[in-house]
Design goal:
This protein has 65 residues and is an alpha+beta fold. The chain has a domain of 39 residues. The protein is built from two helices and two strands, in the order αββα. 3% of the residues are buried.
């Protein structure tokens, strides 16, 4: 995410990927960073993020199996 975030921000693109959450309510929005954030994802808007929910078991099998 951090590697592509500047490109998504500059070109007003959409990032699709795992949010780090194993559950996400249907209308739940990924929070935007604070205005003082200096991290690599600073400036990424919630509307530019399409989260993918990954079952914890599948995540574990992929990364640890």
């Amino acid at each position: 995410m951090t590697a592509v975030a500047p490109v998504v921000i500059e070109w007003n693109g959409t990032w699709v990927g795992w949010s780090g959450l194993s559950t996400l309510e249907k209308d739940e929005v990924i929070p935007e960073s604070s205005p003082n954030d200096q991290g690599p994802t600073a400036g990424l808007k919630s509307a530019q993020v399409r989260p993918v929910v990954v079952d914890p078991k599948i995540f574990d099998l992929y990364y640890n199996g």
